[in-house]
Prior knowledge:
Two copies of one chain form a homodimer. By secondary structure, chain A is mainly alpha-helical. Chain A is built from nine helices and no strands. In chain A, helix 7 (114-138) crosses helix 8 (144-163). Chain A binds a DNA duplex (30 and 30 nucleotides) through residues 1-7, 10, 31-33, 41-45, 47-48, 52-53.
Amino acid sequence: MARPSVKEKRTEEILNAFEKCVARFGVEGSTLEKIAEEAGLRRSLLRHYIGNRDELIDALIARYIERSDADMQLLANSLKNASPQKIIDYLFYEEGDLTAQVSQALMVAAPEHENIRKQLTRWTNDFHDQLTNILKAIYPDATKDNLHIVSAGIEGIYLNAVSFNVLDDMENMKAASKAAALKLLQTLDKT
Amino acid sequence: MARPSVKEKRTEEILNAFEKCVARFGVEGSTLEKIAEEAGLRRSLLRHYIGNRDELIDALIARYIERSDADMQLLANSLKNASPQKIIDYLFYEEGDLTAQVSQALMVAAPEHENIRKQLTRWTNDFHDQLTNILKAIYPDATKDNLHIVSAGIEGIYLNAVSFNVLDDMENMKAASKAAALKLLQTLDKT
DNA sequence: TATTAAATTGTCAATATTGACAATTTATGG
DNA sequence: CCATAAATTGTCAATATTGACAATTTAATA
């Protein structure tokens, strides 16, 4: 017998706005006012629905990691025994620039935010393990070392390639990066 | 017949402090007060020697790019006809974490700072060209495409590996990254 | 329609940050 | 010592940012 709650909806809107701001201004550059404006809400509503600045950051990183974990699961499932080309195609599929820029901004904020640093560290290691497992399924004869090495290399090329999104006219570099990832992966062929 | 000028010295000190802050707090998180405190100077001196906030940022990126260009020249000269292992060793030599974190923070600031974005874009392309040339000297028979691809891949692995510095306990990943770069480079062997 | 819980708006003070510039101190050459 | 140019300190106002909370409005339902 009361007004219906829009808490979930608003929370999503706020965090979406926060992400957009983080991509443009970084974590420290995202003032509550900017976030509110981006969300089309009053600043007081950020506080009402989520909390103060620190709690907003916690909510952001929590949702980001949650989604990244989900994406990783999807990746792991989709790529069981996929071909090398398929794997690279999947990985380098344009997922909308936001994620990459947010990830980079969070990295920059990591030194001062214990919470962010821990979560990103765990995620990075998880991602590595997942990718290594995927590769292992395709190349069962490859040595553990080689699997680790190639996995780390692909991950590096991939993460760096998406970071090109903030620069101008990097299409060539992105294409070359993708080709490099495939080439590295194919070093596992001959064993 | 006047007091000797310390302008150059102070300017260096200020920009050093700015870099440290940028590595910790990002560009937008580096307030003039924090920079001044890090430099052990009054905030008014930042203004006196360099200027307002925007001018400080311009000075920072200018010096950063200048140094990066110099490093790149050194790299190009040092690695003329070096062995693959030498090249990778040189590239992955620990140069003091600062540079990497500053670079990443500048990337995050790029969307909102035309100046930063342009300069980083140019530098990234230059770096790619230099590395490609170095590889070409060692592998004169490799195709242009393959040189580009391997160069982009190594660059990606390298840049991403240094970004691990902000996370915890990433020694394994860094080592694997280095090995991956070498492995990728060696794909140019057989041609 | 009256009630009720939630959404939304509005306001205020405390603090942080920046820009601008005056005032003072200091080290050197003459 | 004196004049001078530079360094350094100090201060002030304007603006930005945040935290906190009161006041109001709105939509469902009994």
